[in-house]
TrEMBL record:
Occurrences of domain Orn/DAP/Arg decarboxylase 2 C-terminal (ranges): 35-376
Pathway entry: Amino-acid biosynthesis; L-lysine biosynthesis via DAP pathway; L-lysine from DL-2,6-diaminopimelate: step 1/1
UniProt GO MF annotations: diaminopimelate decarboxylase activity; pyridoxal phosphate binding
Binding site for substrate: R284, R320, Y324, E351, Y378
EC class of the enzyme, as a word: lyase
Protein name in the entry: Diaminopimelate decarboxylase
Entry's EC annotation: 4.1.1.20
């Protein structure tokens, strides 16, 4: 069975399709490397959260770092969502895509004064503040802008999300958030500063989380704090439980979004916090399984120790395997009936770490198109121009038709801002 989404299928003739469109045809029409997204798959993933939260005061803020293509943002904004942003650049994208700034939360440990001013002028919903010194800076910027900054403290609850160390964010040793035992003092400090209005509490414990327990533990830790803060006379309106829900890349069984949300709401009710607005910041679970990366096989290099299948996509297009040794499924877009062989699927970049998949088994010939599955999150968003490689084009399937939503980059554009010496 293919991991991921029911929108992806293999026909009895061996053709891999997304929303019914043969992926090999899209590769021929738009060229490779090519990201292809199913809009319907994204909306289905979002609907699972929306159904579970219906009837409650809530706001879903898509963590747009996962995939910030404007058409993706537009799709999600039109479905009523807000955004979790981490830079002024992301805010500019939200506005360009027609997103509503009053549904934007601004996270991140290193917001600059200029980014704070930009966000205040745009009218974001709140700042997820990650340190006491950030509170001081935000207060000063708000005063200079003649504005009141709505503040939610991102608390580091010190729970183990059980995920890759590079994508864990909720442990004491991680740089994110304010330590749980310092958070009450930080709330008191926030309430004492001019220009700030405390509105909520926030956490985000990591990414690609496949269990519910870390979420419930983190929520308990937040609610303990909410109770202490409110005893102090500081009102907390919303509770933001962050994002991080995992997807199936291989054989993982993450909880379904509606199951997770149901358990979180139950816990809120059980502890007497059912009246609070719930906020969530899902990224990967909305877009990850909605996308594939298509790449054409250039050369085959069979060998005794290893056989290499050299493709035209590389670590600069899809960083996750090189960076986290992430396992992503790779499937031929048209199956061959010849016996399969084992291949390391590698790109043209001059690094031994440039691989997309190791020890994969399929029958393949040069010119064939392969699809890297579950590539809709942290794929294009993390792409670079290393080796002066123009970034891939992106296509979104909308109502059964492919739409080019980002043109392939041209090499010339990569050095257009550079200057030759006199
Ligand atoms: C503050 C914040 N919120 C939400 C997310 C979304 O995470 P994910 O894509 O794992 O859902 C991230 C990234 O991990 C994040 O840093
Ligand atoms: N880039 C990571 C996720 C990072 C989450 C960011 N807070 C990945 O591909 O899995």
């Amino acid at each position: 069975m293919l991991p991921g989404t029911p929108h992806l299928a293999r026909s009895s003739a061996g053709t891999l399709t997304l929303d019914g469109l043969p992926l090999a045809d899209l590769a021929r029409r738009f060229g490779t490397p090519l990201y292809v997204y199913s809009q319907a798959a994204m909306l289905d993933a979002l609907a699972a959260y929306q159904r579970a939260l219906a009837g409650r005061p809530h706001q879903i803020c898509y963590a747009m770092k996962a995939n910030s293509n404007l058409a993706v943002l537009q799709t999600i904004a039109r479905a009523g969502c807000g955004f979790d942003i981490v830079s002024g650049g992301e805010l500019a994208r939200v506005l360009a895509a027609g997103g509503d700034p009053s549904r934007v939360v601004f996270s991140g440990v290193g917001k600059t004064a200029a980014e704070m001013a930009q966000a205040l002028r745009a009218g974001v919903r709140c700042f997820n503040v990650e340190s006491v010194s950030e509170l001081d800076r935000l207060s000063a910027v708000a005063a200079a802008e003649g504005a009141i900054a709505p503040v939610s403290l991102r608390v580091n609850p010190d729970v183990d999300a059980g995920t890759h160390p590079y994508i864990s964010t909720g442990l004491r040793e991680n740089k994110f958030g304010i330590a749980h035992d310092q958070a009450l003092a930080a709330y008191r400090h926030a309430a004492s500063l001019p220009g700030l209005q405390v509105v909520g509490i926030d956490c985000h414990i990591g990414s690609q989380i496949t269990q519910v327990e870390p979420y419930l533990d983190a929520l308990d830790r937040l609610l303990d704090l909410v109770e202490a803060v409110e005893r102090d006379g500081i009102a907390i309106h919303h509770v933001d439980v962050g994002g991080g829900l995992g997807i199936r890349y291989v054989d993982e069984s993450p909880p379904a979004a509606d199951h997770l949300v149901g358990l979180l709401l139950q816990r809120l009710d059980a502890r007497g916090h059912g009246h609070r607005e719930v906020m969530m910041e899902p990224g990967r679970s909305l877009v990850g399984n909605a996308g594939v990366l298509l790449t054409e096989v250039q050369y085959l290099k069979p060998g005794d120790a290893k056989s290499f299948c050299i493709v035209d996509a590389a670590m600069n297009d899809l960083m996750r395997p090189a960076m986290y040794e992430a396992w992503m499924a790779i499937e031929p877009c048209v199956s061959r009936s010849t016996p399969p062989q084992r291949w390391d699927v590698v790109g043209p970049v001059c690094e031994s770490g440039d691989w997309l998949g190791r020890d994969r088994s399929f029958a393949v010939e040069p010119g064939d198109v392969l699809a890297v599955l579950s590539a809709g999150a942290y794929g294009m968003a993390m792409a670079s121009n290393y080796n002066t490689r123009p970034r891939a084009a992106e296509v979104m399937i909308v109502d059964g038709a492919p739409v080019l939503v980002r043109e392939r980059e041209q090499a010339q554009a990569l050095f257009s801002g550079e200057k030759l010496l006199a």
